[in-house]
Write a structure and sequence with these properties.
Elements lengths: L2 H4 L11 H6 L3 H14 L8 H33 L4 H14 L1 H20 L3 H16 L5 H12 L9 H12 L2 H11 L1 H17 L5 H4 L13 H14 L15 H4 L48 H17 L3 H9 L9 H13 L9 H14 L4 H14 L6 H16 L21 H16 L2 H7 L29 H12 L4 H8 L17 H14 L4 H10 L1 H7 L3 H15 L3 H13 L5 H8 L11 H40 L14 H43 L6 H16 L1 H4 L3 H7 L7 H12 L3
Helix pairs in contact: 3-4, 4-5, 4-6, 5-6, 5-7, 6-7, 7-10, 8-11, 9-13, 10-11, 15-16, 15-17, 16-18, 17-19, 18-20, 20-21, 23-24, 23-25, 25-28, 26-29, 28-29, 28-30, 29-31, 30-31, 30-32, 31-32, 32-33, 33-36
């Protein structure tokens, strides 16, 4: 791989003047070519990896005098951007260090600087990857083993700090443990005594740490058939097994072994002392997790054996697959191809391990790393690329998940429903439904019938009612959703006796005749108020609201667009009718009456009304927890609406927060320029005044108050209905742990987890006002599990 050849490889990709440009290559062209060469090394090639590395090292060595900083910069970027090729790059750095000691030293110095910066700025995953890279450099004779061990000791000493959250010490221990598969053998051979002391310190810490948070993060409440282990406990068990195997593993590619003769002659560098930055209360450390297990070796019918759950190979393969998903999560086709091209695929039941890793991310709590649709589209792509094997593995996984659904977390069941419906829609809704027919006779609130019912409701959103009827066996009739249609009570038989029917017909006719909002309001003006018998002047007229909302939504029932147009045109009428929260709840009741059989339409209309500020978030929360919605309380659409409402409020607060911060930055920059005697540019006319910032802050405080109030309403209502259920069961001598209770208590847990960043801001208020020692322990435990996530 000569330098001349290397710099002409990609010439065909350039334009028609490439021959001319090659003779007058500027620094930019050469830098681009260097980047291409470095980032592509280790990919498929007709030459061996070793010869490619040796050739590339020669090319880079020749270019060091002119492009040293660029080369080091690219290599440092590869450390965090291409960690799946870690040992390829450590070998390359080792070869460069053997040829140019100063270059190796400069690279290590910059990498250490990057590590310190990553720790300081809370870029924890980047820091972990850098530490792993530094560890592997010990194998390449670039770094002295004792200095790496000293760095590990400094990280593990974090466990001895006082008054810090456990997530901080957990993460530093995890960072060290995750690097040991690469460097454990080298440390064992060269520094056995010091290394054993380090491992003992880690073991002492792991034995005493709290694990209250585990319950909240488990996909399944049962350990049958596979234990659901906390991530640090599982990794420690894998490290101990690796230690028992004399630190020998069969998974990591180690190209530097081929260059041992060259590398062992190189001079090594000593790492400077790296002290972890002090704890900052504003730092957000990665949350703990529970390791997802779906398969073991007994589930794989033939071929290579799956590594055991405590084999280090299981961790290494899963870690590599997770990195592939991270690298390609925006391109499903590239991602599927990369997964199926796994380097050691012939030694593994790769399809099973891919499916398990994909589901582990989809079901991760509190939420998946990427959009849920990514996992669905990726699995479809995998089925296309491996049509003879992947669909069978996926079908087997689906059956397993269904069989274990009774102990599955509600959030995960919800994601399972969404994924399965989406998957069916891409395969003509074909499934062996008869195998699940026993669920029809079960209590409809049990997870299996609930799952099938919700899947069919999701399929209805992706298809149409007749298609569902033709696809699913007749025996599933009790679980098949009703055909969606608007219910306009003023047109039904016997509607003449309803108050407001005549006005409803007038309004119907007027809207069809394209009346103005003001004319519609005049038609409603004379309707009597059913609340007028109560003391005082009623704040709203429920009959007016019902006639107007029912009529308007019925006329706009043809499509989402028709409904949106109707809401937009008559927005003025909505605002005049919905001045109080009770009036807004009345609007929501009318929406539910009209569209009770079309859950998606309800979700979309309520979202639209929130966006257009017809209703407020607190009104939606109070309506969902009202007695009218009690029969639907376990239905998934109720929680879809609630989570959408919370997200809308969170986005609103975040937007105002950002505006305040940007305004302060602008004002500060303008004041700094004025102090320095610089003229303010004309483009800076929009520099806010202090009065403007004060008004923005008031607006933000108001929004934060609304956000806090929304969470207080939701959690207070949860406590009320759960306390009522527990008290009733105790009075009647019945078991409180009913299917209804499982859904509701896990929905409470879901609110805490999905919105943990926002809820955590108000943790003291919640602890003092709602989750006190007076409430039932079953409810209090959910709050305690949430608090333990960051403690």
């Amino acid at each position: 791989m000569s330098r001349r050849r290397a710099f002409s490889d990609d010439s065909d990709e350039e334009d028609g003047r490439s021959h001319k440009r090659r003779r007058t290559s500027g620094p930019t062209d050469i830098e681009d070519r260097l980047e291409s060469l470095i980032t592509r090394v280790g990919e498929k090639s007709t030459s061996s990896l070793e010869s490619n590395l040796e050739g590339l090292a020669s090319v880079l060595e020749a270019d060091l005098p002119n492009y040293k900083h660029k080369i080091i910069k690219i290599l440092c970027e590869c450390v965090t951007d291409l960690p799946e090729k870690l040992s390829v790059y450590t070998t390359l750095v080792g070869l460069l260090n053997a040829r140019n000691y100063n270059c190796g030293g400069e690279f290590v110095e910059i990498l250490v600087r990057n590590l310190k910066e990553s720790l300081k700025t809370c870029q924890f995953e980047n820091a972990r990857l850098i530490v792993r890279f530094l560890s592997d450099l010990v194998n390449c004779h670039v770094i002295v083993a004792s200095s790496l061990l000293a760095m590990f000791d400094n990280f593990v000493e974090v466990t001895l700090e006082d008054n810090i959250p456990q997530v901080r010490s957990d993460w530093f221990v995890f960072m060290v443990l995750s690097a040991l598969p690469w460097v454990g053998r080298e440390l064992f051979e060269k520094k056995e005594t010091e290394f054993s002391a380090l491992l003992q310190t880690i073991e002492n810490y792991l034995n005493k740490r709290q694990k209250i948070h585990v319950t909240a993060l488990r996909v399944w409440t049962s350990d049958d058939p596979h234990p659901q282990e906390e991530y640090l406990d599982c990794l420690w068990a894998q490290i101990k097994m690796l230690k028992n195997n004399k630190w020998m593993e069969r998974q990591i590619l180690r190209p530097y072994l081929a260059f041992d003769g060259v590398l062992c002659e190189a001079l090594q560098h000593t790492l400077p002392q790296i002290i972890p930055p002090s704890h900052d209360d504003d730092a957000t450390y990665p949350l703990p997790s529970v390791v997802f297990r779906m398969f073991d070796y007994t589930d794989v019918p033939e071929g290579p054996v799956m590594p055991g759950s405590h084999a280090i190979e299981r961790y290494l393969v899963e870690e590599h697959l997770h990195r592939i998903l991270h690298t390609h999560h925006l391109e499903r086709k590239d991602c599927a191809a990369a997964l199926l091209s796994f380097p050691t695929k012939v030694q593994l039941p790769l399809n099973y391990m891919i499916v398990e890793v994909v589901f582990s991310q989809l079901f991760r709590l509190p939420h998946p790393p990427y959009l849920e649709i990514f996992y669905g589209s990726l699995l479809i792509e995998l089925c296309k690329l491996q049509p003879s094997t992947m669909p069978q593995v996926l079908a087997q996984a689906t059956e397993m998940l269904y069989e274990r659904i009774d102990t599955m977390d509600t959030s995960c069941i919800e994601r399972f429903v969404s994924w399965f419906a989406y998957h069916l829609s891409n395969f003509q809704f074909r499934w062996s439904w008869d195998d699940w027919s026993t669920c029809v006779e079960m209590d409809p609130l049990l997870p299996k019938p609930m799952f099938v019912k919700e899947v069919l409701l999701q399929c209805l959103r992706l298809s149409y009612h007749q298609r569902i009827l033709e696809t699913v066996p007749d025996s599933f009739a009790p679980l098949i959703p009703t055909k969606p249609h608007p219910v306009y009570k003023y047109e039904k038989e016997g509607a003449g006796s309803l108050p407001g029917t005549i006005t409803a017909y007038k309004l119907l006719s007027s809207i069809k005749s394209k009346c103005t909002p003001e004319e519609a309001a005049m038609i409603l003006k004379d309707l009597p108020n059913p609340l007028s018998d109560e003391e005082g002047d009623p704040a709203y007229n429920p009959l007016k609201i019902d006639v107007f909302v029912s009529t308007l939504l019925f006329l706009g029932s043809k499509s989402f667009s028709h409904s949106f147009a109707a809401i937009a045109k008559f927005h003025y009428v909505f605002k005049t009718l919905a001045e109080t929260e009770d009036a807004q709840i009345c609007i929501l009741r009318s929406v539910h009456e009209v569209w009770g059989t079309h859950q998606q339409m309800m979700c979309v209309l309520i979202d639209k009304m929130l966006k257009t500020q017809i209703i407020e978030c607190s009104a939606v929360a109070n309506w969902l927890f009202s007695s009218v919605m009690t029969p639907h309380f376990t239905s998934f659409f109720v929680w879809e609406i609630l989570h959408s409402t919370i997200r809308k409020m969170n986005k609103h607060v975040a937007k105002l927060q950002k505006e305040v911060e940007e305004a302060k930055d602008k004002l500060e920059a303008a004041e700094r320029r004025a102090r320095d005697g610089m003229d303010i540019d004309s483009k800076d006319d929009d520099v806010p005044t202090e009065e403007m910032i004060e008004r923005m802050e008031e607006k933000l405080e108001s929004a934060q108050s609304e956000q806090k109030n929304l969470f207080l309403i939701i959690f207070q209502r949860f406590i009320m209905i759960l306390t009522e259920h527990l008290a009733r069961c105790e009075a009647e001598g019945q078991d409180y742990n009913t299917p209804w209770y499982k859904w509701v208590i896990e929905r409470l847990q879901q609110i805490f987890l999905l919105h943990h960043e926002q809820v955590y801001k108000y943790i003291n208020t919640l602890e003092n006002l709602l989750f006190t020692s007076d409430i039932d322990l079953h409810i209090l435990e959910v709050f305690q599990h949430f608090c333990a996530l960051r403690s």
